Amino acid sequence: MSESDVTRDGVRHARPDREAPTGAHAGRRRRRRGRGRGEQPMVPEAEFSSYYGKPVLNKPTWKPLDIAGYLYLGGLAGASSLLAAGAGVTGRPALGRAAKLGAAGSITLSLAALVHDLGRPARFLNMLRVFKPTSPMSVGSWILSGYVPLALAAAATDVAGRYRLVGSAATAGAAVLGPAVATYTAVLLSDTAVPSWHEGYRQLPFVFAGSAATSAAGLALAAVPSGQAGPARRMAVLGAGLELGAFRVMKLRMGLTAEPFEQGRPRRLLRTAEALTAGGAALALLSARVRDRRLAVAAGAALLTGSAALRFGVFHAGVASAEDPRYTVVPQRERLRARGR
Amino acid sequence: MSDGAEGHGNLLYGPQPDVAGAAGYPDAPPRMGFFTDTSVCIGCKACEVACKEWNAVPEDGLLLTGMSYDNTQGLGADTWRHVAFIEQRKPLAGQEPGVAHDDVDVFAAASRLGTDVASPGPGATAPPPDRAPGGAPAGEISPVSPDGRTELRWLMASDVCKHCTHAACLDVCPTGSLFRTEFGTVVVQEDICNGCGYCVPACPYGVIDQRKDDGRAWKCTLCYDRLGVGMEPACAKSCPTDSIQFGPLEELRERAQARVAQLHAAGVTDARLYGESPDDGVGGDGAFFLLLDEPEVYGLPPDPVVTTRDLPDMWRHAALAAVSLLALAAGSFVRRQR
């Protein structure tokens, strides 16, 4: 502890005004931001130490727009393929076309986002060097390389109006892989040491499945005449229920690591997502009673935006939890204590 | 199999006595690793420099952080060895440096301080002999300085990639760029790394990171090139106090146990090993440490677990969610009675 200034004239200033926090005092004790409603904090403030408040983990280097966008568009595409297949079976050509085009378009954009994050297009090919079940990204790459051609073929044959048989086969194939496309991304996030992603691994796939359903339903609601949008409306309601319910359960089960979802930007995004998804689902129901296209379009837009906000909220919460050593150290300390050490 | 690392009894969690064998090396040499004894680290950062020099790691910016004297801050793409400096208000607890100077009587020399004209004046670190604390017996250093202030101690620790038995970075790498070497260490092949960055959040220790300008991931290779020709890694070679010890992991573990016992006998009861146990969350580290305080004080996680431990469960939940989505979609098409 250097306490003095050595100058030509001798020693001055016995003690500098900054003292480096040391040892057990080095933990960054965060002041809880006022919630304004006198809410109880979710968990008691934990004492912990860290190395000058530096994060234990290296935070994800993924660009938010690319990767959260990739998660969102993948969900949109996967659930749209399900709508497309259902529309094919039940004879709703307008719904089928919108869903097929939506799936093809969004999965293409999703791949573009992934490649943009990698930096160089050729780098995507390295993903296909190996198949590794231990790597959700490798598994995802292979799922996508099966799904993308099917989704594109389904859309292309529908637009061309030819090769009906090939089109139906592609639609069915895309619908089989669609749910995997929509949910594997939850494993992609969970299979990391990032506390707020890893701890929620049991419920996150359900959150993403619900969110995928609401976004696909939203797209269909906005693009399809209301006569054929019945399934989309029901999907919006069911998806919103699954998404909001699973997210609630997830936060309850996560303990301390749920905190980043309730702070700052993730909190704003997730509250927006909640409001838009619930509101969108309600509007979708209403649009069935009041036959007004504008209402259906508004419902669709709300659902699409809500689903996107959810992915971005989850993404940013994870990054925030990796940046603060508290979320790494405190739960691990608890774990050790519980094991009796 | 070109990558070697996968497909050979891929155990995701728990003890693994034959790491290289499980990765597909039938006649592997003994597993090599680091034992970093932080009780003798002097914080010279020679390891940091030697590592950069040997591996041609680019400089990562010179900045003064204002925290401690450690301006490197942590491990990253361009810092494969990092020496942490921790200031603590704790007495030294009778630590002995293990270097004997029996022929020099420093206390006799100290007692002459201030009595002759050539000795330092005000600002000298040693108290005048008449103001020495009463409780301090002759020939012993009291942890309390004359004004009653508790002494400060420095903890210095050279951190490095742990070369885990179950390495999350290796497990999640989608390209096979990360692989297990015949020495049981974990290395990134830079020509195959595609910059997906998945290994970065997967590492429970915050070791591997992405280099900003080329987008690829980099970390300690345990000087794979040097090991191949029977040399020790650059950091261990350059360490002046043998704080960084390199060798077969089994041998290092024995040596570490002996050192802990020695420190405990000397009254340093805080001494503990970190990452040496094959029963821990990553199956034991190829690079483990002797610490003088809790791991988190050094910026290390107290109980790291390889994230892929839960992977089978994750896939099960995802499959269940996928089925739910399918059911949800099917339910949406069930026509209501009009």
TrEMBL record, chain A:
Q: Main subcellular localization, coarse class? A: membrane
The way this protein sits in the membrane is described as:
Multi-pass membrane protein
Region of interest: Disordered: 1-42
- Give the residue spans that cross the bilayer: 67-89, 101-119, 139-156, 163-184, 204-224, 295-314
Q: Which UniProt keywords apply?
A: Cell membrane, Membrane, Transmembrane, Transmembrane helix
Q: Which Pfam families match?
A: NrfD
The record's InterPro entries line, in alphabetical order, gives: Electron_transfer_protein, NrfD-like
From the UniProt annotation, give the residues forming the signal peptide: none
In this chain, composition skew of type Basic and acidic residues spans: 1-20
Q: Where is the composition biased (Basic residues)?
A: 26-35
The places in or outside the cell where this protein is found are: Cell membrane
> Which top-level group of life is the source organism from?
Bacteria
**What family is reported?**
Belongs to the NrfD family.
Q: PANTHER family, alphabetically?
A: PROTEIN NRFD
The name of this protein is Polysulfide reductase, NrfD
UniProtKB/TrEMBL annotation, chain B:
Is Cell division given among the entry's keywords?
no
Q: Which Pfam families match?
A: Fer4_11, Fer4_4
Q: Which UniProt keywords apply?
A: 4Fe-4S, Iron, Iron-sulfur, Metal-binding, Repeat
- Localization in the cell: Cell envelope
**Region span, Disordered:** 116-144
Ranges for domain 4Fe-4S ferredoxin-type come to: 32-62, 152-183, 184-213
Report the superkingdom from the record.
Bacteria
Q: Does the keyword 4Fe-4S apply?
A: yes
What InterPro entries has UniProt attached to this entry?
4Fe4S_Fe-S-bd, 4Fe4S_Fe_S_CS, FDH_Electron_Transfer_Unit, Formate_DH_Fe-S_su
Spell out the coiled coil positions from the record: none
Supply the PANTHER family for this chain: FORMATE DEHYDROGENASE, NITRATE-INDUCIBLE, IRON-SULFUR SUBUNIT
Q: What is this protein called?
A: Formate dehydrogenase, nitrate-inducible, iron-sulfur subunit
Annotated organism of origin: Streptomyces cyanogenus
